[in-house]
Design a protein that fits this description.
With 586 residues, the protein is of the alpha/beta class. The chain has 4 domains: 196 residues, Beta-Lactamase; 93 residues, no CATH class; 155 residues, Rossmann fold, CATH 3.40.50; 112 residues, Orthogonal Bundle (Helicase, Ruva Protein, domain 3), CATH 1.10.8. Helices cover 40% and strands 15% of the residues. The protein has 23 helices and 17 strands. A hairpin with a 5-residue loop joins strand 4 and strand 5. Helix 15 packs across helix 17 and helix 18 packs across helix 20. The structure holds adenosine-5'-triphosphate.
Amino acid sequence: MIAHNHVQEIESVLDGRTTGRDSQVSDSWKRCVEVYGMDPSRADPAHIVTETELREHRMQAERMIASARSGLQSLFRQVARQNYTVLLTDAKGVCVDFFGDRNFETELRGSGLFMGADWSEELAGTSAAGACIVTGEPVTIHQDDHFGNAHTALSCTAAPIYDSMGQLAAVLDISLLQSPSPKSSQNLAMSMVTASARRVEMANLMAQSRREWVLRLSASPEFLDVDPEAAVTLDGSGRIIGFTRGADKLFRGHAPTLLGQRIDSFLALSVDDLPDLMRDRPTEDRVVNMPDGGALFGHAIAPQAPRSTGAVTRRLQRKGGSLAALAGPDPEMQRLLMQAERLATTDVPLILSGETGTGKMRIARALHVATGKDRDLITVECAAQTPDRLIEALGPPGPMRATLILRRIEELPPDVQALLSALLDERPGLRPVATSCVDLGQAVHEGRFHKPLFYRISGAFLSVPPLRKRRDLDWLMDRLLRRRAPDELRLSPSARAELAGRVWTGNLHELERVLDVAVTLCDGDVIDLPDLPVPADSGPVAPEEDSLEDVLEACGWNMAQAARRLGVNRSTVMRRVRRSGLALPL
Ligand SMILES: Nc1ncnc2c1ncn2[C@@H]1O[C@H](COP(=O)(O)OP(=O)(O)OP(=O)(O)O)[C@@H](O)[C@H]1O
Protein backbone atom coordinates (compact mmCIF):
# COMPACT_ATOMS: atom_id res chain seq x y z
CA MET A 1 0.00 0.00 0.00
CA ILE A 2 2.50 2.55 -1.15
CA ALA A 3 -0.28 4.99 -2.02
CA HIS A 4 -1.76 4.81 1.46
CA ASN A 5 1.65 5.25 3.09
CA HIS A 6 2.25 8.23 0.82
CA VAL A 7 -0.93 9.95 1.99
CA GLN A 8 -0.06 9.15 5.61
CA GLU A 9 3.41 10.60 5.20
CA ILE A 10 2.02 13.82 3.74
CA GLU A 11 -0.33 14.07 6.71
CA SER A 12 2.61 13.57 9.12
CA VAL A 13 4.51 16.37 7.43
CA LEU A 14 1.46 18.59 7.72
CA ASP A 15 1.39 17.79 11.42
CA GLY A 16 4.91 19.16 11.67
CA ARG A 17 6.79 15.86 11.85
CA THR A 18 9.97 15.24 9.86
CA THR A 19 10.01 12.16 7.66
CA GLY A 20 13.43 12.42 6.08
CA ARG A 21 12.26 14.25 2.97
CA ASP A 22 14.19 17.21 1.59
CA SER A 23 12.80 20.51 2.83
CA GLN A 24 12.00 21.47 -0.77
CA VAL A 25 9.65 18.48 -0.91
CA SER A 26 7.95 18.93 2.47
CA ASP A 27 7.54 22.67 1.89
CA SER A 28 5.87 21.97 -1.43
CA TRP A 29 3.55 19.37 0.12
CA LYS A 30 2.47 21.92 2.69
CA ARG A 31 1.77 24.49 -0.01
CA CYS A 32 -0.27 21.91 -1.95
CA VAL A 33 -2.62 21.33 0.98
CA GLU A 34 -2.54 24.61 2.83
CA VAL A 35 -2.36 27.05 -0.07
CA TYR A 36 -3.87 25.23 -3.07
CA GLY A 37 -6.32 23.05 -1.09
CA MET A 38 -5.25 19.79 -2.78
CA ASP A 39 -6.13 16.30 -1.66
CA PRO A 40 -3.16 13.85 -1.63
CA SER A 41 -5.41 10.82 -2.03
CA ARG A 42 -6.62 11.93 -5.46
CA ALA A 43 -4.69 10.74 -8.51
CA ASP A 44 -5.29 13.61 -10.93
CA PRO A 45 -4.05 12.88 -14.46
CA ALA A 46 -1.62 15.22 -16.20
CA HIS A 47 -3.16 18.47 -17.35
CA ILE A 48 -2.45 19.34 -20.99
CA VAL A 49 -3.40 22.81 -22.27
CA THR A 50 -5.37 23.20 -25.51
CA GLU A 51 -3.67 23.73 -28.88
CA THR A 52 -4.65 27.41 -28.88
CA GLU A 53 -3.37 27.95 -25.35
CA LEU A 54 -0.12 26.18 -26.20
CA ARG A 55 0.37 28.41 -29.24
CA GLU A 56 -0.05 31.45 -27.03
CA HIS A 57 2.41 30.18 -24.40
CA ARG A 58 4.94 29.37 -27.11
CA MET A 59 4.52 32.77 -28.71
CA GLN A 60 5.20 34.52 -25.44
CA ALA A 61 8.26 32.37 -24.74
CA GLU A 62 9.48 32.57 -28.33
CA ARG A 63 12.79 34.28 -27.57
CA MET A 64 13.69 31.94 -24.75
CA ILE A 65 12.73 28.89 -26.83
CA ALA A 66 15.08 30.07 -29.59
CA SER A 67 17.94 30.68 -27.13
CA ALA A 68 17.40 27.34 -25.42
CA ARG A 69 16.92 25.14 -28.49
CA SER A 70 20.49 24.06 -29.14
CA GLY A 71 21.10 23.63 -25.37
CA LEU A 72 18.07 21.34 -25.15
CA GLN A 73 19.16 19.38 -28.18
CA SER A 74 22.66 18.80 -26.88
CA LEU A 75 21.36 17.86 -23.42
CA PHE A 76 18.97 15.39 -25.03
CA ARG A 77 21.81 13.87 -27.06
CA GLN A 78 23.68 13.25 -23.80
CA VAL A 79 20.78 11.72 -21.85
CA ALA A 80 18.55 10.08 -24.47
CA ARG A 81 20.22 6.68 -24.06
CA GLN A 82 19.29 6.69 -20.38
CA ASN A 83 15.67 7.26 -21.49
CA TYR A 84 15.40 10.80 -20.19
CA THR A 85 12.95 13.27 -21.65
CA VAL A 86 13.97 16.92 -21.84
CA LEU A 87 11.34 19.61 -21.28
CA LEU A 88 11.38 23.37 -21.31
CA THR A 89 8.50 25.00 -19.44
CA ASP A 90 7.70 28.68 -19.44
CA ALA A 91 7.58 30.65 -16.19
CA LYS A 92 3.97 29.48 -15.68
CA GLY A 93 4.94 25.82 -15.88
CA VAL A 94 3.57 24.96 -19.33
CA CYS A 95 5.86 22.76 -21.42
CA VAL A 96 6.72 24.82 -24.51
CA ASP A 97 9.49 22.65 -25.94
CA PHE A 98 10.20 18.99 -25.68
CA PHE A 99 12.67 16.27 -26.70
CA GLY A 100 11.73 12.67 -25.99
CA ASP A 101 11.57 9.21 -27.50
CA ARG A 102 8.54 9.21 -29.79
CA ASN A 103 8.26 5.40 -29.40
CA PHE A 104 6.91 6.06 -25.91
CA GLU A 105 4.62 8.87 -26.94
CA THR A 106 1.49 7.46 -25.26
CA GLU A 107 3.26 6.86 -21.93
CA LEU A 108 4.99 10.24 -22.02
CA ARG A 109 1.79 12.07 -22.84
CA GLY A 110 -0.11 10.19 -20.10
CA SER A 111 2.55 11.18 -17.54
CA GLY A 112 2.67 14.80 -18.59
CA LEU A 113 6.17 14.54 -20.06
CA PHE A 114 4.91 16.16 -23.19
CA MET A 115 4.33 19.37 -25.08
CA GLY A 116 1.58 21.48 -23.50
CA ALA A 117 1.63 19.73 -20.10
CA ASP A 118 0.99 22.18 -17.29
CA TRP A 119 3.34 21.51 -14.35
CA SER A 120 2.44 24.54 -12.27
CA GLU A 121 2.37 23.54 -8.61
CA GLU A 122 -1.18 24.70 -7.96
CA LEU A 123 -2.42 22.39 -10.72
CA ALA A 124 -0.04 19.42 -10.76
CA GLY A 125 1.01 19.39 -7.10
CA THR A 126 4.63 18.81 -6.12
CA SER A 127 6.74 18.40 -9.25
CA ALA A 128 10.27 19.43 -10.16
CA ALA A 129 9.20 22.17 -12.60
CA GLY A 130 6.45 23.43 -10.26
CA ALA A 131 8.68 23.56 -7.15
CA CYS A 132 11.46 25.14 -9.17
CA ILE A 133 9.14 27.94 -10.28
CA VAL A 134 8.04 28.63 -6.70
CA THR A 135 11.49 28.52 -5.09
CA GLY A 136 13.64 29.69 -8.00
CA GLU A 137 16.14 26.95 -7.19
CA PRO A 138 17.11 23.66 -8.87
CA VAL A 139 15.34 20.62 -7.45
CA THR A 140 14.94 16.87 -7.91
CA ILE A 141 11.48 15.48 -7.27
CA HIS A 142 11.95 11.76 -7.19
CA GLN A 143 9.17 9.18 -7.34
CA ASP A 144 6.96 9.58 -4.24
CA ASP A 145 8.32 13.06 -3.58
CA HIS A 146 5.54 13.91 -6.02
CA PHE A 147 2.40 15.04 -4.28
CA GLY A 148 -0.17 13.34 -6.44
CA ASN A 149 -0.22 9.54 -6.79
CA ALA A 150 -0.41 9.92 -10.58
CA HIS A 151 3.25 10.90 -10.82
CA THR A 152 4.98 8.71 -8.24
CA ALA A 153 6.76 6.60 -10.88
CA LEU A 154 8.54 9.61 -12.32
CA SER A 155 11.88 11.08 -11.39
CA CYS A 156 12.27 14.70 -12.46
CA THR A 157 15.11 17.17 -12.06
CA ALA A 158 14.65 20.83 -12.94
CA ALA A 159 16.72 24.02 -12.94
CA PRO A 160 15.46 27.58 -13.34
CA ILE A 161 16.45 29.76 -16.29
CA TYR A 162 16.58 33.48 -15.57
CA ASP A 163 16.39 36.22 -18.15
CA SER A 164 19.01 38.96 -18.34
CA MET A 165 17.00 41.18 -15.96
CA GLY A 166 17.08 38.52 -13.24
CA GLN A 167 13.48 37.35 -13.73
CA LEU A 168 12.64 33.67 -13.83
CA ALA A 169 11.78 33.02 -17.47
CA ALA A 170 11.69 29.25 -17.92
CA VAL A 171 12.51 25.91 -16.37
CA LEU A 172 14.65 23.17 -17.85
CA ASP A 173 13.59 19.72 -16.73
CA ILE A 174 14.86 16.22 -17.42
CA SER A 175 12.60 13.38 -16.44
CA LEU A 176 12.45 9.61 -16.41
CA LEU A 177 9.30 7.54 -16.73
CA GLN A 178 10.91 4.85 -14.55
CA SER A 179 14.04 5.28 -12.47
CA PRO A 180 16.31 3.42 -10.07
CA SER A 181 15.19 3.83 -6.51
CA PRO A 182 17.72 5.93 -4.62
CA LYS A 183 17.24 9.63 -5.16
CA SER A 184 21.03 9.98 -5.32
CA SER A 185 20.85 8.22 -8.71
CA GLN A 186 19.76 11.63 -10.01
CA ASN A 187 22.78 13.61 -8.78
CA LEU A 188 24.41 13.51 -12.18
CA ALA A 189 21.12 14.60 -13.77
CA MET A 190 21.17 17.60 -11.43
CA SER A 191 24.67 18.65 -12.51
CA MET A 192 23.78 18.29 -16.16
CA VAL A 193 20.55 20.22 -15.99
CA THR A 194 22.03 23.11 -13.98
CA ALA A 195 24.99 23.37 -16.37
CA SER A 196 22.63 23.38 -19.36
CA ALA A 197 20.41 26.04 -17.76
CA ARG A 198 23.50 28.20 -17.24
CA ARG A 199 24.45 27.84 -20.91
CA VAL A 200 20.92 28.74 -22.01
CA GLU A 201 21.04 31.90 -19.86
CA MET A 202 24.37 32.77 -21.44
CA ALA A 203 23.00 32.20 -24.97
CA ASN A 204 19.97 34.32 -24.16
CA LEU A 205 22.09 37.17 -22.76
CA MET A 206 24.40 37.09 -25.76
CA ALA A 207 21.46 37.16 -28.18
CA GLN A 208 20.12 40.27 -26.47
CA SER A 209 23.42 42.09 -26.06
CA ARG A 210 24.74 42.44 -29.58
CA ARG A 211 24.96 46.21 -29.31
CA GLU A 212 26.64 46.32 -25.90
CA TRP A 213 29.78 45.15 -24.18
CA VAL A 214 29.51 41.72 -22.59
CA LEU A 215 31.95 40.61 -19.92
CA ARG A 216 32.11 36.88 -19.32
CA LEU A 217 33.81 35.58 -16.20
CA SER A 218 35.24 32.30 -15.06
CA ALA A 219 37.24 31.10 -12.08
CA SER A 220 39.41 28.93 -14.30
CA PRO A 221 41.15 30.06 -17.49
CA GLU A 222 40.45 26.74 -19.25
CA PHE A 223 36.68 27.30 -19.31
CA LEU A 224 36.65 31.05 -19.86
CA ASP A 225 36.14 31.02 -23.59
CA VAL A 226 34.11 27.81 -23.85
CA ASP A 227 31.86 27.66 -20.81
CA PRO A 228 32.13 30.71 -18.54
CA GLU A 229 30.27 30.74 -15.24
CA ALA A 230 28.88 34.26 -15.33
CA ALA A 231 28.31 37.21 -17.63
CA VAL A 232 27.17 40.82 -17.45
CA THR A 233 26.11 43.25 -20.16
CA LEU A 234 27.46 46.78 -19.71
CA ASP A 235 26.39 50.10 -21.12
CA GLY A 236 28.86 52.72 -22.31
CA SER A 237 29.42 54.06 -18.81
CA GLY A 238 30.10 50.65 -17.31
CA ARG A 239 26.71 50.12 -15.69
CA ILE A 240 25.22 46.64 -15.60
CA ILE A 241 22.18 46.38 -17.84
CA GLY A 242 21.93 42.60 -18.00
CA PHE A 243 23.32 39.63 -16.12
CA THR A 244 23.15 35.88 -15.78
CA ARG A 245 22.23 34.04 -12.61
CA GLY A 246 25.91 33.14 -12.22
CA ALA A 247 26.82 36.84 -12.05
CA ASP A 248 24.00 37.45 -9.59
CA LYS A 249 25.41 34.76 -7.30
CA LEU A 250 28.96 36.01 -7.74
CA PHE A 251 28.17 39.59 -6.81
CA ARG A 252 25.13 39.06 -4.61
CA GLY A 253 25.60 40.45 -1.14
CA HIS A 254 27.42 43.45 -2.54
CA ALA A 255 24.20 45.04 -3.82
CA PRO A 256 20.46 44.28 -3.64
CA THR A 257 20.21 44.22 -7.42
CA LEU A 258 22.89 44.20 -10.07
CA LEU A 259 20.91 46.30 -12.54
CA GLY A 260 22.27 49.82 -12.79
CA GLN A 261 25.33 49.09 -10.62
CA ARG A 262 28.75 50.08 -11.96
CA ILE A 263 31.03 47.20 -12.75
CA ASP A 264 33.88 48.89 -10.88
CA SER A 265 31.94 48.44 -7.64
CA PHE A 266 32.42 44.66 -8.01
CA LEU A 267 35.64 44.34 -9.95
CA ALA A 268 38.84 46.34 -10.20
CA LEU A 269 38.12 47.36 -13.76
CA SER A 270 36.25 49.95 -15.76
CA VAL A 271 34.55 49.85 -19.12
CA ASP A 272 37.68 51.29 -20.71
CA ASP A 273 39.68 48.24 -19.70
CA LEU A 274 37.40 45.92 -21.64
CA PRO A 275 39.43 45.98 -24.88
CA ASP A 276 42.31 44.51 -22.85
CA LEU A 277 40.16 41.51 -22.03
CA MET A 278 39.32 40.61 -25.59
CA ARG A 279 40.15 37.25 -27.02
CA ASP A 280 43.33 38.26 -28.80
CA ARG A 281 45.19 38.19 -25.48
CA PRO A 282 46.18 34.90 -23.80
CA THR A 283 43.51 33.79 -21.34
CA GLU A 284 45.98 33.69 -18.44
CA ASP A 285 46.70 37.39 -18.96
CA ARG A 286 43.05 38.36 -18.72
CA VAL A 287 42.91 38.45 -14.93
CA VAL A 288 40.24 40.57 -13.26
CA ASN A 289 40.78 41.38 -9.60
CA MET A 290 38.00 41.47 -7.05
CA PRO A 291 37.98 43.87 -4.09
CA ASP A 292 38.14 40.97 -1.61
CA GLY A 293 41.50 39.95 -3.01
CA GLY A 294 40.13 37.16 -5.20
CA ALA A 295 40.57 37.05 -8.95
CA LEU A 296 38.68 35.81 -11.97
CA PHE A 297 39.45 35.50 -15.65
CA GLY A 298 37.57 37.81 -17.99
CA HIS A 299 36.54 37.69 -21.62
CA ALA A 300 35.12 40.90 -23.05
CA ILE A 301 33.04 40.85 -26.21
CA ALA A 302 32.77 44.16 -28.01
CA PRO A 303 29.45 45.57 -29.24
CA GLN A 304 28.72 44.55 -32.79
CA ALA A 305 28.11 47.52 -35.02
CA PRO A 306 24.65 47.79 -36.54
CA ARG A 307 24.34 47.46 -40.29
CA SER A 308 23.25 51.06 -40.71
CA THR A 309 25.90 53.65 -41.44
CA GLY A 310 26.53 57.32 -40.80
CA ALA A 311 25.63 59.19 -37.67
CA VAL A 312 24.01 56.28 -35.85
CA THR A 313 27.04 54.07 -36.33
CA ARG A 314 29.34 56.77 -35.12
CA ARG A 315 27.19 57.47 -32.11
CA LEU A 316 27.26 53.82 -31.16
CA GLN A 317 30.96 53.58 -31.74
CA ARG A 318 31.42 56.32 -29.20
CA LYS A 319 30.05 54.03 -26.54
CA GLY A 320 32.28 52.36 -23.94
CA GLY A 321 35.78 51.40 -24.91
CA SER A 322 35.70 53.42 -28.09
CA LEU A 323 38.44 55.74 -29.24
CA ALA A 324 36.75 58.89 -27.99
CA ALA A 325 36.98 57.64 -24.41
CA LEU A 326 40.78 57.47 -24.45
CA ALA A 327 41.59 61.12 -23.84
CA GLY A 328 40.47 64.05 -21.76
CA PRO A 329 40.76 67.71 -22.69
CA ASP A 330 43.93 67.49 -24.76
CA PRO A 331 43.51 69.02 -28.23
CA GLU A 332 46.25 66.93 -29.84
CA MET A 333 44.90 63.62 -28.53
CA GLN A 334 41.38 64.59 -29.46
CA ARG A 335 42.45 65.42 -32.99
CA LEU A 336 44.35 62.15 -33.21
CA LEU A 337 41.42 60.12 -31.92
CA MET A 338 39.03 61.79 -34.32
CA GLN A 339 41.34 60.91 -37.20
CA ALA A 340 41.63 57.35 -35.87
CA GLU A 341 37.87 57.06 -35.69
CA ARG A 342 37.52 58.16 -39.33
CA LEU A 343 40.25 55.78 -40.43
CA ALA A 344 38.85 52.92 -38.37
CA THR A 345 36.13 52.09 -40.84
CA THR A 346 38.51 51.96 -43.82
CA ASP A 347 41.09 49.34 -44.79
CA VAL A 348 43.99 51.81 -44.77
CA PRO A 349 47.11 50.44 -43.02
CA LEU A 350 48.16 52.47 -40.05
CA ILE A 351 51.29 53.21 -38.08
CA LEU A 352 50.94 54.49 -34.54
CA SER A 353 54.22 55.93 -33.39
CA GLY A 354 55.24 57.39 -30.07
CA GLU A 355 57.41 56.86 -27.04
CA THR A 356 57.01 53.74 -24.96
CA GLY A 357 53.88 53.64 -22.83
CA THR A 358 52.01 56.42 -24.60
CA GLY A 359 49.01 54.15 -25.16
CA LYS A 360 49.59 53.05 -28.76
CA MET A 361 48.38 49.51 -28.16
CA ARG A 362 45.35 50.80 -26.35
CA ILE A 363 44.48 52.97 -29.33
CA ALA A 364 45.15 50.13 -31.76
CA ARG A 365 42.73 47.83 -29.94
CA ALA A 366 40.06 50.52 -29.64
CA LEU A 367 40.49 51.19 -33.34
CA HIS A 368 39.83 47.55 -34.08
CA VAL A 369 36.65 47.71 -32.01
CA ALA A 370 35.59 50.83 -33.89
CA THR A 371 36.05 49.17 -37.29
CA GLY A 372 32.44 48.19 -36.87
CA LYS A 373 33.05 45.22 -39.13
CA ASP A 374 32.93 41.58 -38.43
CA ARG A 375 36.69 41.07 -38.46
CA ASP A 376 38.96 39.02 -36.30
CA LEU A 377 41.81 40.50 -34.34
CA ILE A 378 45.34 39.12 -34.59
CA THR A 379 48.00 40.60 -32.33
CA VAL A 380 51.66 39.92 -33.05
CA GLU A 381 54.44 40.77 -30.56
CA CYS A 382 57.13 41.60 -33.08
CA ALA A 383 60.14 41.24 -30.76
CA ALA A 384 59.58 37.55 -30.20
CA GLN A 385 58.87 36.53 -33.77
CA THR A 386 60.40 33.68 -35.69
CA PRO A 387 59.37 32.83 -39.27
CA ASP A 388 57.39 29.77 -38.09
CA ARG A 389 55.58 31.64 -35.35
CA LEU A 390 54.65 34.46 -37.69
CA ILE A 391 53.25 32.08 -40.32
CA GLU A 392 51.23 30.35 -37.63
CA ALA A 393 49.91 33.64 -36.20
CA LEU A 394 48.76 34.95 -39.59
CA GLY A 395 47.09 31.67 -40.59
CA PRO A 396 46.79 30.30 -44.11
CA PRO A 397 46.15 32.65 -47.06
CA GLY A 398 42.44 32.98 -47.66
CA PRO A 399 39.48 35.31 -47.54
CA MET A 400 39.78 35.94 -43.80
CA ARG A 401 39.35 39.59 -42.78
CA ALA A 402 41.20 40.70 -39.70
CA THR A 403 42.91 43.63 -38.05
CA LEU A 404 46.56 42.68 -37.66
CA ILE A 405 48.13 44.58 -34.76
CA LEU A 406 51.91 44.50 -35.04
CA ARG A 407 53.28 45.59 -31.66
CA ARG A 408 56.64 47.35 -31.81
CA ILE A 409 57.21 46.61 -35.48
CA GLU A 410 60.76 48.02 -35.25
CA GLU A 411 61.71 45.02 -33.10
CA LEU A 412 60.80 42.49 -35.80
CA PRO A 413 64.00 40.52 -36.44
CA PRO A 414 65.54 41.39 -39.84
CA ASP A 415 65.02 37.89 -41.29
CA VAL A 416 61.30 38.07 -40.49
CA GLN A 417 60.72 41.53 -41.99
CA ALA A 418 60.85 40.40 -45.63
CA LEU A 419 58.72 37.39 -44.78
CA LEU A 420 56.02 39.57 -43.22
CA SER A 421 55.92 41.69 -46.35
CA ALA A 422 55.37 38.57 -48.50
CA LEU A 423 52.77 37.11 -46.13
CA LEU A 424 50.79 40.37 -46.23
CA ASP A 425 50.81 40.29 -50.03
CA GLU A 426 49.23 36.83 -49.93
CA ARG A 427 46.61 37.90 -47.38
CA PRO A 428 44.90 41.06 -48.64
CA GLY A 429 42.16 40.70 -46.00
CA LEU A 430 44.60 41.58 -43.22
CA ARG A 431 44.69 45.22 -42.26
CA PRO A 432 48.02 46.06 -40.60
CA VAL A 433 48.01 48.44 -37.65
CA ALA A 434 51.61 48.74 -36.45
CA THR A 435 52.92 50.43 -33.33
CA SER A 436 56.44 51.76 -33.17
CA CYS A 437 58.62 53.63 -30.70
CA VAL A 438 61.03 54.84 -33.38
CA ASP A 439 60.87 56.89 -36.55
CA LEU A 440 60.43 54.06 -39.06
CA GLY A 441 61.14 56.31 -42.07
CA GLN A 442 64.50 57.13 -40.51
CA ALA A 443 65.12 53.42 -39.78
CA VAL A 444 64.51 52.65 -43.48
CA HIS A 445 66.83 55.47 -44.46
CA GLU A 446 69.55 54.03 -42.24
CA GLY A 447 69.02 50.51 -43.63
CA ARG A 448 67.69 49.17 -40.32
CA PHE A 449 64.20 48.43 -41.60
CA HIS A 450 63.06 46.52 -44.70
CA LYS A 451 61.91 49.11 -47.22
CA PRO A 452 59.19 47.05 -48.99
CA LEU A 453 57.67 46.16 -45.62
CA PHE A 454 57.67 49.82 -44.64
CA TYR A 455 55.69 50.72 -47.75
CA ARG A 456 53.42 47.71 -47.27
CA ILE A 457 52.37 48.83 -43.76
CA SER A 458 52.43 52.59 -44.35
CA GLY A 459 49.11 54.25 -44.94
CA ALA A 460 48.16 56.76 -42.34
CA PHE A 461 50.62 57.83 -39.62
CA LEU A 462 49.40 58.85 -36.21
CA SER A 463 51.89 60.21 -33.76
CA VAL A 464 50.82 59.67 -30.14
CA PRO A 465 52.06 62.49 -27.91
CA PRO A 466 54.16 61.77 -24.82
CA LEU A 467 52.52 62.33 -21.46
CA ARG A 468 54.61 65.42 -20.68
CA LYS A 469 53.00 67.15 -23.68
CA ARG A 470 49.44 66.18 -22.87
CA ARG A 471 47.18 68.72 -21.26
CA ASP A 472 44.82 66.12 -19.86
CA LEU A 473 47.22 64.81 -17.20
CA ASP A 474 44.74 65.70 -14.42
CA TRP A 475 42.00 63.84 -16.22
CA LEU A 476 44.28 60.82 -16.71
CA MET A 477 45.39 60.84 -13.07
CA ASP A 478 41.79 60.85 -11.87
CA ARG A 479 40.79 58.17 -14.31
CA LEU A 480 43.65 55.85 -13.38
CA LEU A 481 43.13 56.56 -9.68
CA ARG A 482 39.44 55.67 -9.87
CA ARG A 483 40.41 52.34 -11.33
CA ARG A 484 42.71 51.58 -8.43
CA ALA A 485 40.87 52.98 -5.45
CA PRO A 486 37.44 53.90 -4.09
CA ASP A 487 35.80 57.19 -5.06
CA GLU A 488 36.88 58.99 -1.87
CA LEU A 489 40.63 58.60 -2.46
CA ARG A 490 42.08 61.74 -4.04
CA LEU A 491 45.35 63.51 -4.65
CA SER A 492 46.26 66.50 -2.49
CA PRO A 493 46.95 69.72 -4.46
CA SER A 494 50.68 69.48 -3.68
CA ALA A 495 50.85 65.84 -4.83
CA ARG A 496 49.07 66.85 -8.02
CA ALA A 497 51.47 69.73 -8.60
CA GLU A 498 54.45 67.46 -7.97
CA LEU A 499 53.17 64.91 -10.52
CA ALA A 500 52.36 67.66 -13.00
CA GLY A 501 56.00 68.73 -12.82
CA ARG A 502 57.42 65.30 -13.70
CA VAL A 503 58.83 64.45 -17.10
CA TRP A 504 57.22 60.99 -17.38
CA THR A 505 59.78 59.30 -19.58
CA GLY A 506 57.86 56.04 -19.05
CA ASN A 507 54.59 57.81 -19.94
CA LEU A 508 51.36 56.05 -18.94
CA HIS A 509 53.26 52.97 -17.79
CA GLU A 510 55.13 55.15 -15.32
CA LEU A 511 52.03 57.02 -14.21
CA GLU A 512 50.29 53.72 -13.53
CA ARG A 513 53.18 52.48 -11.38
CA VAL A 514 53.39 55.76 -9.44
CA LEU A 515 49.69 55.58 -8.62
CA ASP A 516 49.99 51.91 -7.66
CA VAL A 517 52.64 52.82 -5.09
CA ALA A 518 50.80 55.93 -3.88
CA VAL A 519 47.53 54.03 -3.38
CA THR A 520 49.38 51.35 -1.40
CA LEU A 521 51.31 53.77 0.79
CA CYS A 522 48.50 56.22 1.45
CA ASP A 523 46.81 55.77 4.86
CA GLY A 524 43.75 58.00 4.77
CA ASP A 525 41.79 59.11 1.76
CA VAL A 526 44.23 61.79 0.53
CA ILE A 527 47.40 60.91 -1.36
CA ASP A 528 50.05 63.40 -0.29
CA LEU A 529 53.69 64.08 -1.18
CA PRO A 530 55.22 61.42 1.15
CA ASP A 531 53.06 58.74 -0.56
CA LEU A 532 54.60 59.43 -3.97
CA PRO A 533 57.58 57.36 -5.10
CA VAL A 534 60.57 59.26 -6.45
CA PRO A 535 60.57 59.60 -10.23
CA ALA A 536 61.91 56.52 -12.02
CA ASP A 537 64.14 58.76 -14.08
CA SER A 538 65.83 61.05 -11.55
CA GLY A 539 67.09 63.62 -14.06
CA PRO A 540 63.94 65.76 -14.29
CA VAL A 541 64.90 67.22 -17.60
CA ALA A 542 62.57 67.33 -20.58
CA PRO A 543 64.18 65.92 -23.73
CA GLU A 544 66.12 68.44 -25.76
CA GLU A 545 63.77 68.30 -28.70
CA ASP A 546 60.99 69.73 -26.54
CA SER A 547 61.18 73.48 -27.02
CA LEU A 548 60.69 75.89 -24.15
CA GLU A 549 57.29 76.69 -25.61
CA ASP A 550 56.32 72.96 -25.70
CA VAL A 551 57.17 72.58 -22.04
CA LEU A 552 55.33 75.74 -21.04
CA GLU A 553 52.25 74.73 -23.06
CA ALA A 554 52.16 71.30 -21.43
CA CYS A 555 52.43 72.88 -17.97
CA GLY A 556 49.68 75.37 -18.74
CA TRP A 557 52.33 78.15 -18.46
CA ASN A 558 52.88 77.34 -14.81
CA MET A 559 56.47 78.55 -14.34
CA ALA A 560 57.17 76.42 -11.25
CA GLN A 561 56.10 73.20 -13.00
CA ALA A 562 58.01 74.09 -16.14
CA ALA A 563 61.09 74.80 -14.02
CA ARG A 564 60.87 71.36 -12.40
CA ARG A 565 60.54 69.68 -15.76
CA LEU A 566 63.47 71.56 -17.18
CA GLY A 567 65.58 70.95 -14.08
CA VAL A 568 66.24 74.67 -13.51
CA ASN A 569 64.84 77.23 -11.10
CA ARG A 570 61.86 79.44 -11.74
CA SER A 571 63.82 82.64 -12.38
CA THR A 572 65.84 80.86 -15.09
CA VAL A 573 62.62 79.94 -16.86
CA MET A 574 61.42 83.55 -16.63
CA ARG A 575 64.74 84.78 -18.01
CA ARG A 576 64.59 82.30 -20.94
CA VAL A 577 61.02 83.31 -21.70
CA ARG A 578 62.00 86.97 -21.84
CA ARG A 579 65.09 86.25 -23.94
CA SER A 580 63.22 84.09 -26.46
CA GLY A 581 60.51 86.72 -26.87
CA LEU A 582 57.71 84.30 -25.96
CA ALA A 583 54.53 86.08 -24.98
CA LEU A 584 52.58 84.88 -21.97
CA PRO A 585 49.08 83.79 -23.05
CA LEU A 586 46.31 86.22 -22.07
N1 LIG B 1 43.68 56.37 -22.44
C1 LIG B 1 44.13 55.60 -21.47
N2 LIG B 1 43.53 55.64 -20.28
C2 LIG B 1 43.99 54.87 -19.27
N3 LIG B 1 45.02 54.03 -19.36
C3 LIG B 1 45.64 53.94 -20.53
C4 LIG B 1 45.24 54.71 -21.65
N4 LIG B 1 46.05 54.44 -22.68
C5 LIG B 1 46.92 53.51 -22.23
N5 LIG B 1 46.67 53.20 -20.95
C6 LIG B 1 47.43 52.27 -20.11
O1 LIG B 1 48.79 52.64 -20.17
C7 LIG B 1 49.63 51.51 -20.29
C8 LIG B 1 50.48 51.66 -21.57
O2 LIG B 1 49.62 51.58 -22.69
P1 LIG B 1 50.02 50.78 -24.01
O3 LIG B 1 50.54 49.42 -23.70
O4 LIG B 1 48.89 50.89 -24.95
O5 LIG B 1 51.23 51.70 -24.49
P2 LIG B 1 52.19 51.51 -25.74
O6 LIG B 1 52.47 52.86 -26.24
O7 LIG B 1 51.64 50.53 -26.70
O8 LIG B 1 53.47 50.90 -25.00
P3 LIG B 1 54.78 50.20 -25.66
O9 LIG B 1 55.33 51.14 -26.65
O10 LIG B 1 55.67 50.02 -24.48
O11 LIG B 1 54.33 48.94 -26.28
C9 LIG B 1 48.74 50.30 -20.32
O12 LIG B 1 48.71 49.72 -19.05
C10 LIG B 1 47.39 50.87 -20.71
O13 LIG B 1 46.34 50.09 -20.18
